[in-house]
Each structure stands twice: as structure tokens, then as C-alpha cells.
Amino acid sequence: MMLPGIDGIELIVKTLGDTSLRGMATVAITGGSIEGGRREVLSSFSIQLISKPVTEDSLLGAMEAALLGTTALVNQEKESYDAQTSES
């Protein structure tokens, strides 16, 4: 993933490394192949990856998966918060 002035993976790490943005649903679209450590970075942030050419079905599927993953993350964080506050 290449962008003017910044590598796409670097942008993802900077953006989702911010805890206030960590639950943001993210879909990465690439014209190239993602291999090795770069794929691991995407997986660690639960980013949906689709390759060009993008079809309507692949984009909608990736968006749905990203949103469902974000919902699951928010629910986990809420359960953790609720458990911590009930112990106090």
C-alpha cells in the first residue's frame, strides 16, 4: 500500500496505535500483494484487506466484516469496563 509521502502500513500503525482510534473499522485496498510482516500488521489490527480491482461485493463484504469486528471489540471493552467498575 503506497500513498504520497507515507507508506500505507505506517499510516495504519500511527492511526490505530492511537488508543482513541483503535476501535475504528478499517478496510485496506491494495493494488499489490501484502506479504510477511506487513500482513501480520494488518492482522494485528483486525484490518480487512481487499485487492484491486475492487468489486461491489468484495468491498461490501470487507466493510461488513470490519464493522462486525469493531462491534465485537467495543463489546469486549465494555464488558471489561463493567467488570472493573462492579469490583470497585
Number of strands: 4
Alpha-beta classification: alpha+beta
Overall structural domain count: 1
CATH homologous superfamily placement = Response regulator
3D shape: globular
Low-confidence stretches: none
According to CATH, what is the class? Alpha Beta
Q: How do the strands of the widest beta sheet line up side by side? A: 1-2
User: Could you tell me how far the N terminus lies from the C terminus, measured between alpha carbons in angstroms?
Assistant: 46 Å
Biggest pleated-sheet summary: 2 strands, antiparallel
- The percent range for strand residues is 5-15%
Helical stretch tally = 3
What is the CA-atom radius of gyration, in angstroms? Answer: 15 Å
Order of helices and strands: EEHEHEH
Query: What is the CATH architecture term?
Result: 3-Layer(aba) Sandwich
Fraction in helix: 55-70%
What is the average per-residue confidence, as pLDDT, rounded to a whole number? 81
What does this structure look like?
This protein is an alpha+beta fold and 88 residues long. It has one domain (2-87): Rossmann fold, CATH 3.40.50. It contains three helices and four strands. It has helices spanning 8-16, 36-44, 56-87, and strands spanning 2-3, 6-7, 27-30, 48-51. Strands 1-2 form a two-stranded antiparallel ribbon. Strands 3-4 form a two-stranded parallel sheet. It is globular.
